[in-house]
Write a structure and sequence with these properties.
The structure is a homodimer. By secondary structure, chain A is mainly beta. In chain A, about 15% of the residues lie in helices and about 35% in strands. Chain A is built from 3 helices and 9 strands, in the order αβαββαββββββ. In chain A, the strands form 2 sheets. In chain A, strands 2-3-1-4-5 form a 5-stranded antiparallel beta sheet, with helices on one face. The longest helix of chain A is centred in the middle third of the chain and has 10 residues. The N and C termini of chain A lie far apart (about 35 Å). Chains A and B meet through α2 and β2 of A and α2 and β2 of B. β2 of chain A pairs antiparallel with β2 of chain B, so a sheet runs across the interface.
């Protein structure tokens, strides 16, 4: 059993979000609505040594599988994350999160004057110019969004 | 090895905060300043079944021992918590957190008109009327503080 496995151990049924960029586990919890009152066991490992990432975070959630919009939001903050669905201690599905080229509605433009923040029926739309560090360009106003503009929106 | 031990496993050196009232682990992290960028491995278990508490949370912090003012703050939110200092995988010190009868300076009065919130040289002072649910009475204005008044102060 590896050191990593020892730190935050196996769950029976649920989701393991692994290879979260180090330091982002708490933001992932926020995306998933895991604040004070949560049902089911949740375990979190932060700054766990990782061969590929240097330091990684991971989140294990017993008894819950993620919705696709939750996976999309995780991709914004942790583009290397993998999502493992566990049933009866076995990984039955594994997917890498991935950023689409265009992101619609998931995040709001940080430029308050942008038309997507007005009362007009306009859905926020961004082009992913770079994944890490994250760089999103607003379709409407050209504003460049970076990672630090995102977490407080969730 | 018990189910609990399996979920969040042993650390080599550092602090284990155990028997945190279920749902309060993230507030404990906040008290300890563990937000996004933290040095060293931190593991968190939430809603772990406990014989005495029903559900408990726990936090394990590698390579760090707590200051007494941090322990005092944890006592406000998790009056049943135990703090274990670990060296070389062994518990070398174990202490129960405990609320003093009078709390000075640790928290601010939630009544904005209280003299302890003015520019006067007055230190906040509360009498602990009840531990759980928490009830603190302000020495100056008599305002009753409850648990929900506390977390946003840290």
């Amino acid at each position: 059993m590896s050191e990593t496995t020892l730190r935050v151990s196996k769950i029976r049924d649920g989701t393991v979000i692994d290879h979260i960029t180090g330091g982002h586990a708490l933001e992932v919890l926020k995306i998933l609505g895991i604040t004070d009152h949560v049902d089911g066991v949740v375990t979190v490992g932060m700054n766990v040594p990782s061969k590929t990432l240097g330091l990684k975070d991971m989140v294990k959630i017993e008894g819950r599988e993620l919705k696709s919009e939750e996976v999309d939001k995780i991709a914004l903050l942790a583009p290397h994350a993998s999502i493992n669905i566990i049933r009866d201690y076995e990984v039955i599905d594994k997917q890498l999160v991935r950023l689409p080229k265009i992101i619609k509605e998931t995040v709001k433009c940080a430029n308050p004057a942008c038309i997507s923040n007005s009362k007009e029926p306009v859905k926020s739309t961004f082009y992913v110019e770079n994944e890490e560090p994250l760089r999103l360009r607003c379709h409407y106003c050209g504003y460049i969004m970076e990672k630090q503009d995102i977490p407080n929106q969730f």
